[in-house]
Every structure is written in C-alpha cells, then in structure tokens.
Design a protein that fits this description.
The chain is of the alpha+beta class. The protein has 16 helices and 20 strands. It is globular and about 65 Å long.
C-alpha cells in the first residue's frame, strides 16, 4: 500500500482545493453544533503519547542542563540574547541533545491523584502530542550515518535506519517531522487535521528557538514532495506499523523536512543515502479504537503536494532596519533562556485582575511582526495572517477589539475592514494597530467568552487574539497551502508562548472557537479570510492540587555509547 492509500480517498471528481474547502467548512464550530467528534472518551484507553520502535538500537543523549554540555552556560543568559545571532557551537552529541531537549523534550512530570502526565517544551492541543521527530544524521562521531527517531520520554535516539557506505554529502543534520493524527482524532474527531498542523508549526518554532541557543539556523525545505518525505522517514513502510484494527490509528503522516545550519549558515543539502538497512517495529498507538474519521484522511491526501505561491508577507519588515529586531525587543527581559524554553507551560486559569504592562504589550506587538530574523525564518515566505485582539487589561489601552496588521495596511484584512470600519490607529504605538470598537469590560468579557466556546480563559486573560488568514488566495495557489497556513499560525503561537514567559506571564492556545461568529463580529463575509487559531495571555493561577517533579530525575550525566 502506498502513502496515498493509507487514508480513504475523497470524491474523485472534486479538486484538491474543493476537498480542503469542504473539510474546513465542515469542521467549523458553530453555536448550534460543534464539529463532529467522539461522543464519549475512555481515558483509561487513551492513545499512547510516546512511540518507540521495538528492536531499534538506542543511544542516550546528553541533556542541555548537563554541566558538561557546552550549551549549558547559554541557558543562564537573558532571553533577549536570542534576539541577535549567537556564535555557533560545534555539532556534537552534546549540542544535538541540547537541541532536542530544549525543543521537543520533557520539561516536567505532573501528577494529580492517580493520574500522571508529561509536560514538554513544545505545546500540543490537549497535550496529546501527535508530532514525532526523526533525524537524518551524517558525519557525527559516535553515531553511524542513518535515520534516528527521537524518544522524548527517555531522551534517547533509536536507529530507525542505517545508511550504507554509498551515502554521500556534507556532515550535518536534517529533521523530519511527522504526525500521528489518531492521537488528536481520538479526542477531537474531524477537527484533528487542523490541530496536527498547528502542532507542527509549534514544533518548528520550538526547534528554531533551540537552534538559536546553539547559534544554528533551521529552515523548512518545502520542495520535497509528500511521498519522498514518507520514504525518507520510513512512514510508508506499513509493515513496520502493525495495526490491530485499522491502519489509520497507527500510521504517521510525513509533514515537513527541516535543514539545520550548524555553522550559522544555511544547512547542507540532504545527503544521498545509498543502501538503507531498516530496524524496528512501531509500538501500538491505540489497541481498541472506537471511532473512525474519514475526512481527516481526505484532508491529508488532498494536501500532500508542495507549498506553492507563498508570498513575502511584508517586504517592509524583511528588509532594511526591520530585518533584525527592533530596539524595544532587544531590551533585557529579566528571565533567562532556560526559564523561558524549559519553563513554558499552558495556563489553565487566569487571574482576572492582572494588568499587562504597556511596554511589554508594545514589545509583544513588535515581536509579532514578520521579519527575516529568528524564528520567522524557519518558515520562509508564507501567507499573510493578521491578528484580531480582544484587549481586556493592558496598561494605557482602553478595553476593546483591535486589529494588528502584519503587513501593508492596504492589503489583507485591514483593506477589507477599511470598507466598513473607521480604522482608528492607536497613537504612540510603533506598529499598525487599529481600534475597531471600544467596549465596557464586562461586555467584552462576555463577548470573548462566548466566541471561544464559552471558556472563561478567554475572558479572564489580559488579552485574547484570533489569527485571520488569506484562505482562498492560498488554496488557489495550492491545496497544500492549507497545511502551511496552520503551521504559520502555530509558529505565531510559539512566539506568543515565549513572549508570555519572557514577561513573567503565561499563554495558552485555544483551538475551540466559533469560526463564523468571529467573522461576523467584524463583518468578514465569504471565505476569503478565515480564522485558524486563537490564543490568550495573562497571569496564570496554578492548581495547588497538581504536583510537579523533574522530567529526567533518574538521569545521570554520562557520555553516550556509540550506536551498536
């Protein structure tokens, strides 16, 4: 069975763009009904959040926090140190371990009563973590050239495939991201494809921040097609992913190839692999699935082409003075790199009395503008996404609904809204921020709560926001751009997480919102622009009943053994 046969096929007479559009409209939440999902959840039978390959040789990775790791001193620097490129550290097992620890590794174990779960450096919808990471490694001491699967639970690499003597190319590392879509579909049903793409974008952002700590670059390689990427990662080898009931619970969708520049420049090209020897059989994700969601597979099949027609989002932010961080962003944050990257958490509740400082808010707006710098360079190009802000409590700013333009104001959502709104620019702000409506605090809280599936977290935060994308223009260029739109939104979400932590607050992504109601609020008609992802920032209220313990408490720093 080929990669494209893994999921059920869509209507053969429909174009890929039609399939994607139908999927997106079908999976919008509405006041009258939520998108289709399971009617019941058996939490004792939740899909495994960790995958391993039985029979694959394993190698232990050093932690970023090990005293012997050359990356360790950089964790103590102020987070603002990442706003300018750091000198690159040599590629080694220590620095590779630091990259994965800071981006995809565990940061804590949480427990409440009999329940215990892991927290990771990269966030995930529902903490379900569909994203898996593989590394194509060449020329690294102590590791044979080959494909390695990352095990976040134990911070190890397992050799999935060994590349023979015929392989050629420069020493280096590439990262392949895949998604186990069933982990999301188990809880969220048909909306799972959206969340897997958002999580992929978050993972890209987390990897880019971690690479910056090491002085490395990281950039997506969009030219490789889905079938070739699946063959590289071995996810098309269905015999290695045995299923008890249905293959769609066990397979992994090849998502993205990322090149790492360990010398601070562009990463090397993908090496020629020569003869490949495969190892291991994938562990089971779900032994007893209760549902199937065919449209998730249809959306995946329709979007496996190459991303095309991606535009430069805002030339004025990618050239000249805007190519690097503004002075406001370069200011000291007061929190260290380690505190931000390893301390990131998703807030569950917010303190409704907290007021965000005005200078922190302005720095956040500046940071959200696209540029050619880290981390926006991880997903170059892309389609425009403007931000709709629900500002509850920000020093010096009246409560209300605002629009942040992330590009030329005569284009995108600002251009559409200017026909029906009197866009009032906010004085004293260095970025294009417009007030759409001033509102009484209680009315704004009720509105934000209502639009976000009646969740208090959207009403009690300092601010909430929605991401409005160029939907139809992207689909017209390529159906595969549907993935890119969500990944760009996930990358924005990762920036929001990092900035919230840097200012001593917390963030949380919101995947549940009423799509049409958000559009209607500001007068967006049709499908030219769609809201993809929402987010909130504020002062978190921790649950004292939840206990926390170190992620790798049993680990002792040691030199890893060579792959056998």
């Amino acid at each position: 069975m080929t990669t494209t046969e893994m999921w059920p096929a869509a209507d053969a007479t429909a174009s890929a763009a039609d399939v994607v559009r139908a999927y997106h409209l079908r999976t919008r939440h509405r006041y009258v009904a939520y998108a289709a999902g399971p009617e019941t959840l058996d939490w004792d039978a939740q899909p495994s959040p960790f995958r391993h390959f039985e029979g694959a040789p394993r190698s232990t990775l050093p932690l970023a926090t090990d005293d012997a790791n050359p990356a360790r001193p950089r964790l103590d620097q102020d987070f603002a140190a990442l706003d300018a490129p750091l000198p690159p550290l040599p590629l080694s097992l220590h620095t590779l371990g630091a990259l994965l620890h800071l981006s995809l590794g565990l940061t804590a174990w949480k427990s409440s009563g009999p329940d215990r779960w892991a927290v990771r450096a990269n966030p995930s919808s529902g903490n379900l973590h569909p994203v898996e990471a593989y590394l194509v490694i060449r020329g690294l001491d102590t590791l044979a050239d080959g494909l390695y699967h990352y095990l976040p639970e134990t911070h190890e690499l397992e050799c999935r495939a060994r590349h023979g003597a015929g392989s050629a190319g420069d020493a280096g590392v590439h990262v392949v991201l895949t998604s186990v879509m069933w982990r999301e579909a188990w809880k969220y049903g048909e909306r799972a494809f959206r969340y897997c793409q958002l999580d992929t974008g978050h993972a890209v952002g987390a990897l880019r921040y971690a690479a910056a700590v090491l002085g490395w670059t990281l950039q997506a390689q969009p030219d490789i097609d889905g079938a070739s990427l699946a063959a590289l990662a071995g996810t098309d080898r269905l015999q290695d992913f045995p299923a008890r009931r249905a293959i769609d619970t066990e397979i992994e969708e090849a998502e993205l190839l990322l090149a790492i520049g360990c010398d601070g420049g562009d990463g090397p090209p993908l090496p020629e692999l020569g003869r490949v020897q495969w190892f291991g059989t994938a562990s089971t994700v779900d032994r007893h699935p209760m549902y199937r969601w065919a449209v998730v597979g249809e959306a995946a099949a329709a979007t496996r082409g190459a991303v095309q027609g991606a535009v430069t989002v805002a030339d004025e932010y990618r050239t000249g003075a805007r190519a690097t961080r503004g002075a406001a962003v370069l200011a000291q944050r007061g929190r260290s790199v380690g505190e931000v990257l390893l301390g990131r958490r998703s807030a569950q509740r917010f303190d409704a009395r907290e007021v965000m400082a005005g200078d922190a808010f302005e720095r956040l707006l500046e940071r959200l503008q696209p540029s050619g710098a880290m981390p926006w360079d991880a997903l170059p190009g892309g389609w425009r996404i403007d931000l709709l802000l629900f500002v509850h409590r920000v020093e010096g700013l009246s409560p209300g609904v605002y629009l942040l333009s992330r590009g030329r104001v005569e284009q995108g959502v600002p251009a559409r809204l200017a026909r029906q709104h009197d866009l009032v620019p906010v004085d004293g702000v260095a970025v294009p921020l417009y007030r759409l409506a001033a509102m009484e605090p209680m009315a704004l809280a009720r509105l934000a709560r209502s639009l976000h599936c009646h969740q208090d977290i959207a009403a009690n935060a300092c601010l909430a926001l929605g991401m409005l994308c160029e939907f139809e223009a992207a689909l017209a260029a390529s159906a595969a751009n549907y993935r890119d739109l969500h990944r760009q939104a996930g990358l924005i979400g990762q920036v929001l997480y990092a900035e919230a932590e840097a200012m001593g607050l917390r963030g949380t992504g919101i995947g549940c919102f009423f799509d049409d109601a958000v559009h209607e609020l500001i007068g967006l008609e049709g499908t030219a622009h769609q809201t993809l992802y929402h987010f909130t920032l504020g002062r978190a209220i921790d649950d004292a009943r939840i206990e926390s313990s170190p992620a790798y408490a049993q680990r002792t720093p040691a030199e890893p053994e060579p792959t056998p």
